[in-house]
Amino acid sequence: MEIQDPIIVMHTSLGNIRIKLYNDTPLHRDNFIKLAKEGTYNGLLFHRVIKEFMIQGGDVTSKDAPINKQLGAGDLGYTVPAEFIYPRYFHKKGALSAARTGDEVNPEKASSASQFFIVTGKVYTDAELNQMEKQKEARLKQTIFNRLQTENKSQIMNLYRNGEKDELTILKDTLIGKAEMETERRKDEVKFTPEQREIYKSKGGVPFLDNEYTVYGEVIEGLDIVEKIENVKTNSSDRPLENIVITSVEIG
After folding, report:
1. What span, in angstroms and rounded, lies between the C-alpha atoms of 218 and 5?
2. pTM of the predicted model, to two decimals?
3. What is the mean pLDDT of the chain?
4. Fewer CB within 10 Å: C terminus or N terminus of the chain?
5. Which pLDDT belongs to residue 68?
6. 126-146: per-residue pLDDT in tens?
7. Count of CB atoms within 10 A of residue 135's CB?
8. Dist. CA 94–CA 227, nearest whole Å
9. CA 208 – CA 236 distance, rounded (Å)
């Protein structure tokens, strides 16, 4: 018998948000439940709010933080391995996703231990989604080419040191060709499914975050509270001018 996805209730100073955590992302599910039971989230703030994008919380230094304090760096000293269940789970409006540090220091896209965001996003047109697919395909091709360069680094360096420019050009063209062929084979990875397209066109979300951050739950009640938080006034650092507090997180 299939075990039901666990439900948590996030009590905030603006109202309650009911969230389903996915059993398909057990590392994130268990980590969130553990922190909730320990009271880690009690008193923390939604410290970063961007209209038509998301609301973010979980900075462990945000509790009772002065209104002028810069927030966003507070965490628990460990990360949670990425759990991409794509395209089943994506950044539709109401998705619960894990914050993380950037690719340059975190190429594995591991998640923050405590920081999360809830997607608000916006509605997209077919033309905009088509353009995003092209951009995703270009990024995939570049990623593949970079990997091939790394795999052939010693040969490239030898040709470069020996001044063999023609051979270097031939090798580069060969790697570009291989990258294009692999991209063509993996084209489906950058295509939106019919379900994604329909939701992004009707309810909205943030499609360019897909396969970049781990989605591990979704709001099932209280989306109006999420929207209320999304629309508060913020300062130049996207911090609300009046503190929005997570008073507690209840399991079930």
Report:
1. 11
2. 0.89
3. 95
4. N
5. 85
6. 999 999 999 999 999 999 999
7. 12
8. 10
9. 23
pLDDT of residue 189: 86
Q: What is the 3-state secondary structure (H, E, C) of the chain?
A: CCCCCCEEEEEECCEEEEEEECCCCHHHHHHHHHHHHHCCCCCEEEEEEECCCEEEECCCCCCCCCCCCCCCCCCCCCEECCCCCCCCCCCECCEEEECCCCCCCCCCCCEECCCEEEECCECCCHHHHHHHHHHHHHHHHHHHHHHHHHHCHHHHHHHHHCCCHHHHHHHHHHHHHHHHHHHHHCHHHHCCCHHHHHHHHHCCECHHHCCCCCEEEEEEECHHHHHHHHCCCECCCCCECCCCEEEEEEEC
Rounded CA separation 217/251 (Å): 14
246 burial level (CB within 10 Å; 0-12, 13-18, 19+)? buried
Q: Write out the two tokens for 97.
A: 């996703």
Using 70 as the pLDDT threshold, list the residues of the chain that sit under it: 1-2
- In the structure encoding, which two tokens stand for residue 143, read together? 């990623």
Between 153-161 and 126-151, two packed helices, what is the crossing angle to 10 degrees?
A: 70
